Amino acid sequence: MSQQQPTARSSRRTPSRAHRPRALAAAGALIVLPLVTACGGGDDGKGAAGGKAAPSVTAAPAAGVVAPAKVEVIAGLTGCKAKIRIDADELRQGLCHTKKADYLITTFPEEKFKETWLEEARVYGGKYLVGTRWVVSVKPALLESFRAKLGGTIRELRGIGPKPGGR
């Protein structure tokens, strides 16, 4: 009597297209982690409700461009030439290195991808400059000067866990 061997099946699963944006958003958030933890400021008492700071002016008087912009355009407005780190369907991300700071510029083809990215980044906390289909991750001390150049709003995302130095 002969026995048939069962066909071997791979235990690896291919992510569906519906899960790819979330996976890329999570990956993008993980890339931001070193900058957020290195550049994150203390709690200034703003934005306690809902994890968002009060919206500020969204016009960019110095920029003179209409968002959404490309990584390269935003980088040029902030005085750097971005090195592209991620070039995917759901987002593009560039790293800028200047004398004042290293920072990330992330752009999205649709607003929903930006919101997903921000939701995933919320775990790490920090302050971000957010515009139409773009986010800039920079030291909190430079946020206002960047907002003057780019427009957007400063959003504070509440992290998980205890605050540094607090109880």
Describe the structure.
- The protein is α+β, with helices and mostly antiparallel strands and 167 residues long.
- It has helices at residues 20-39, 71-78, 111-121, 143-150, and strands at 83-87, 92-97, 102-107, 126-131, 134-137, 153-157.
- It has a six-stranded antiparallel beta sheet with strand order 1-2-3-5-4-6, sandwiched between helices.
- The longest helix has 20 residues, at 20-39.
- The radius of gyration is 19 Å and the shape is globular.
- Mean pLDDT is 73; it is low at 7-15, 21-26 and 29-58.
Number of helices: 4
Report the helical percentage.
25-40%
User: Would you count the extended β strands for me?
Assistant: 6
User: What is the residue-mean pLDDT, rounded to a whole number?
Assistant: 73
The whole-angstrom Rg is: 19 Å
Shape: globular
Question: What is the terminal separation in angstroms?
Answer: 71 Å
Major sheet characteristics: 6 strands, antiparallel
